[in-house]
Design brief:
Length: about 450
Amino acid sequence: MVTIILGLIGLSLVVIVHEFGHFLIARTVGVDVEAFSVGWGPALLTHKGKKTEWRLGVLPIGGYCKLKGEDGFRAAIEQKLDFIPADKGSFYAAHPLKRIAIALAGPLFNMIFAVLVFTFVVAIGTTIRTAPNRIVLSSETGTTMQAGSSNPADMAGLQTGDILQSIDGRTIRDYSDLQEIIASNPGKALSVQVLRNGSIQNLVLTPRLDANTGAGVIGVYPWIDPLVSSVKEQSPAAIADLKPGDKILSANGKPIRNTIDLMNSFKAANGPVELTLERNGQNLSTTIIAKSLEETGIAFVSITRTDKASSLPDAIAKGAKETMSTFALTIRSIGLLFRGVNIFKAVSGPARITYLIGTAASEQIKVEGLAGLVPVLSFLAFLSVGLAIMNLLPLPVLDGGLILVFFIELARRRPLSAKTLYRYQFIGAAFVLVLFVVATMSDIFFFAAR
């Protein structure tokens, strides 16, 4: 329940920011706002202001801003009029440029919200737990991403133990940096600088598109030293008397270089595994009874990195830069939908978005208290940018579709007929319905798989 509540709050916040943009600019340019609702459905609470009725809807999902006369084309069709009624203070009575400003305000406020959130996040600082920028080839575990084809990492000539120092001129500080740049560049040839056995190697790496996620992948794992950081109480590892600080040297007689070696040993044994440990300079032996490394209850030492702005101007600059980077990445992601991505897995509907926000928030709060909300805020900023871009698409019903219509009206120097607008909006409604069905099916498959 907590997960659902937190998810709904996060999703609703982004939508309400969008709708408030429409509200504020509409009032500024003289268009009456009949109602502003937080949530949908019948109103639980209402407050009648001078010009606007404020509502709290029964369904806590987003909200809406109802402008006077915004659906005037329907009234024109019902009354068999060729024109849309333009009563004083109504949406269609306003000049096309004012209507464009109103339509543009929603996405603009989402972008401003993202800048503010990213600025706040980098101002207070975020701590990232990750692994070093050293890799293990997944092909060593027998894992190939595509049947009959080598993984991109193998094709590029990467080797287990390589330290990736830079990609396309960008310094790779840790595995988190590596994941970010690989995921955002599927199909792009990247120049990679690798440190191998003390010498520099220059390679070309082309990430492969993962059709299920839309992200680039290359087929590597992070190299994590087999040094125990913590042991879960009453776990197989605790029963075997493993302790923080232990270094695992071998498993069933095979040397262990990293956690992937250890994972392979458990996978091969499918039962008890005899471990040789180093503890306080002495070697010890113990047997752990588990069928997989995940079952053992062992956590391994990771590295942490704190990203924090040096000043408020620096935070604002970084917040704006992160927003624009997210904008560009989202545009590229939309293009991937036409390159063979499985939309039933890569596209998320409201239910999955709510679940992901709520899960991230509840898990982070459990571990770090209120400080755990910082990564969640970043996720909301990403979502806000996505909502802005989606609404700017030149499709009927969306803000971008309205902007297109009003620019056409400016060019023609006369409004489109009520019938034309109605047909245009009908096509848009049909498109949105199809998109809703796809997103809903995607959510169903996601939750069924869990």
